[in-house]
Amino acid sequence: MRAPKKALLFFILPFGLLFTAFYLAPILYAIKQSLYRVERTGTFGPAVEVFGGLTQYQRVFADGPFWESIGRVLLFGVVQVPVMLGLALLLALLLDSGLVKGRRFFRLAFFVPYAVPGVVAAIMWGFLYSPSLSPFDAVTGNVDLLSADLVLWSMANVVTWVYVGYNMLIIYSSLLAIPQEVYEAARIDGAGAIRTAWAIKIPLVMPAIVLTTVFSIIGTLQLLAEPQVFRTFSSAVSSTYTPNLTVYSTSSIPNFHLAAAFSVVLALATCLLSFAFLKVTQRGGDK
To answer: Which phi and psi angles does 44 have, rounded to 5°?
Structure first.
């Protein structure tokens, strides 16, 4: 039994080292940093790090703009995530239906936006939204897509454009794994294409939809590139517009200890939301 155990350790050790170095260690370091604060002796005295306990967390929970940004991204997610995943599911079903010719071309075409870096995509769409730069000035001249009321949904459009193809591929891969015998049985029972999609395909790819939803919840709370770029196009986007932008702005002051506390609270909120969603979907699946 010794040899198999050594072989198991040989294969697990590289992952364990990388997981510890690039996942656990940064989390522990952030928690440690969040427990300290900076003190100065006098107005121009040297800055000294001292243990502050939960002082930084008290500041986090008393920070109104931070919690407003949490509410903003939650509203963003409630609207944008269902729209994005609905489009991804629709495109995956169309590719799997056999009605579309040139599936390889469309599969690649739908995925190409995901290959565009988020910052580049945000800059490109920012130019398209800007009334003075957009080639669609007939639209942007009459509707200010960068105003305080619409800029959040303009960013939602950018995120949807980038990630629809990525989520579509995950769902489409799950569709390809469904045995053909299931479809043959449905055809024998007289089920049409729409009935097959609704009663067979969608229930069988539900695990993939749940997976993409969890990824999207995590991505929503980590929204950074789009608001950071849109700050150059719109005065409606402040330095605390999203939680991650708040962390970035706070660390740029620099106030690394408060930024670490923001990060820890944001990570806990992300874990709680993802876990709650998984528990709800599991409970619904058990019924």
So the answer is: -115, 20
Domain ranges of the chain: 55-286
Q: Which residues pair with 36 in a beta bridge?
A: 51
pLDDT for 191 equals: 83
Rounded Cα distance, 125 and 156, in Å: 11
Q: Does domain 55-286 have CATH number 1.10.3980.10?
A: no
Report d(CA 232, CA 86) in Å as an integer.
Answer: 31
Highest mean pLDDT among 51-55, 192-196, 256-260: 256-260
**Whether 30 contacts 263, CB under 8 Å:** yes
Whole-prediction pTM value? Answer: 0.86
Q: Is the pLDDT of residue 74 over 80?
A: yes
Give the distance from CA 156 to its chain's centroid. 11
69: nearest Cα among 164, 152, 155, 129: 152
Query: Would you call 237 helix, strand, or coil by DSSP?
Result: coil
